[in-house]
Amino acid sequence: MAQLDTRAKLEILADAAKYDASCASSGSVKRTSRDGKGIGSTDSGMGICHAYAPDGRCISLLKILLTNSCIFDCHYCINRKSSNVRRARFTTDEVVRLTLSFYRRNYIEGLFLSSGIIGSSNYTMEQIVEVARSLREDHEFRGYIHLKTIPDADPELIHQAGLHADRISINVELPTASGLKRLAPEKSQDRIEDAMAGMSDAILDTADAKKHYRSAPRFAPAGQSTQMIVGADAATDRDIVSRAAGLYGSFNLKRVYYSAFSPIPDASAVLPLQRPPLMREHRLYQSDWLMRFYGFKPGEVADAADDNGMMRLDIDPKLAWALKFRGAFPVDVNTGPREMLLRVPGLGTRAVDKIVAARRGRRLTLADIGRLTVSLAKVRPFLIASDWRPVALADKADLQLPKPAAKQMELFG
């Protein structure tokens, strides 16, 4: 490991970080270096493309691991102790220099840093915090920093991470406690949730202090997020939606990310042989969106699942829910409440807001709705307009559903 140069380490540790999906940066505090001091800037409310491409395209965050060595042996992890992979480790100074160098070349806008566990959880967390501290204090780096923290580490170290980072991630790893115990026996759901609760309390306390004291320090201003691996255990989509809703409610999370399990070399016999379809991950993100932006309760989103607790792959959860509860439709665009318009398949939040604003001045026709949405064919069966009334969905038992796209066969499959 000591013989590897920085470029070789970067190749290994950037590739090892690709399995971590929770690296969004929206909601960070605006910082600039226009006063001639410091380096870097961020702009609150703006998302960043987070892909780290080996050929240098579309890089915004330097997304790396401090090391892919680990003392834990989680079955699903490519970097587990028993995995036969090439190992590498950065020093804290190397990560700092790489971040500043990439920023000065206009490759990135910030850093996403995670790590395997080396030595102990506390030692590893100290190294992660030192990177962020050095960037902020020694180099006045004002770009975005996202740190993946270690729940087993001392709470004071996790608190220090929040003082330097814009966002903190604490992964719950798997949707159920039984799945975590089976596939990651060295990790504890109670310790993970205790760390998330401590971070949530600190974020709320600091936000309250900022209202009263201008000098109060910033603390993880972009909040905290988490990630769940989908398809490594027997958890259904209904289980996952319920777990995500509980996390949002208990810890005030900004995002729950989903990562479809990917089979790894020399995999444990307890893991499934095939990865779940990526469409399953996509449907879970859509379900998450329904809870966060469309007013659906967790139980209502779960109702969109089939009898086995799984989201349909051929249609999105919103349409699946509408077809299960046809009696709630059609909705009159001229008189229907906003919360019901948000449940119409094919209408997004912006389209609904435009409809509510436009109907104050006149009655809307189907053509008006067509100008406000990109999918008129999808919304027609669920809406009433001044010149349009569909056949009641309850009378359309043979309502045609969109057919799944044809799948290209593999030539050498």
UniProtKB/TrEMBL annotation:
<dbReference type="GO" id="GO:0051536">
    <property type="term" value="F:iron-sulfur cluster binding"/>
</dbReference>
<keyword id="KW-0411">Iron-sulfur</keyword>
<dbReference type="InterPro" id="IPR058240">
    <property type="entry name" value="rSAM_sf"/>
</dbReference>
<dbReference type="GO" id="GO:0046872">
    <property type="term" value="F:metal ion binding"/>
</dbReference>
<feature type="domain" description="Elp3/MiaA/NifB-like radical SAM core">
    <location>
        <begin position="60"/>
        <end position="287"/>
    </location>
</feature>
<keyword id="KW-0408">Iron</keyword>
<keyword id="KW-0479">Metal-binding</keyword>
<dbReference type="Pfam" id="PF04055">
    <property type="entry name" value="Radical_SAM"/>
</dbReference>
<dbReference type="InterPro" id="IPR023874">
    <property type="entry name" value="DNA_rSAM_put"/>
</dbReference>
<dbReference type="GO" id="GO:0003824">
    <property type="term" value="F:catalytic activity"/>
</dbReference>
<protein>
    <submittedName>
        <fullName>Biotin synthase</fullName>
    </submittedName>
</protein>
<dbReference type="InterPro" id="IPR010994">
    <property type="entry name" value="RuvA_2-like"/>
</dbReference>
<dbReference type="InterPro" id="IPR013785">
    <property type="entry name" value="Aldolase_TIM"/>
</dbReference>
<keyword id="KW-0949">S-adenosyl-L-methionine</keyword>
<dbReference type="InterPro" id="IPR051675">
    <property type="entry name" value="Endo/Exo/Phosphatase_dom_1"/>
</dbReference>
<dbReference type="InterPro" id="IPR007197">
    <property type="entry name" value="rSAM"/>
</dbReference>
<dbReference type="InterPro" id="IPR006638">
    <property type="entry name" value="Elp3/MiaA/NifB-like_rSAM"/>
</dbReference>
